[in-house]
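Milestone M4 deliverable, item 7.
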Amino acid sequence: MSDEANGLADGESQIDPSAFGRYIERQIWKHEWERRLARLALCLVIGFYVLLVGFIFLGNGRIVVGLWYIVVSFKPHGVADVPIILALASIPTILMIALLRYFHHNGGSDSKGESLLPLSAQAAKDVSDLFKN
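Output delivered:
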């Protein structure tokens, strides 16, 4: 290679600027979509876990207020409460697994070979990186 060659700086590139612009716009849209998807999924997960904790600790509580007394009582959960607890516990877990698998299989990180983290931890890191501004 000689010093006389100007290389690609003189317009020798074979890339169409409009096609490149469409590609960049598509990548920006994909990034924003993934960011909204991650926020929605994490908000749903947090909401389900809050409902689970509320149901377990406050679901069977009773407060009775009278003129001269206040009674707070709790009864144990029954067999009929088990499906509700299982649903409130399994739905956010499935959402998190699906979100991490999505980012794991769709190339969340550009530096796959350089990462010292396991792939699942790298996917979780990529999800958390979407929230950094």
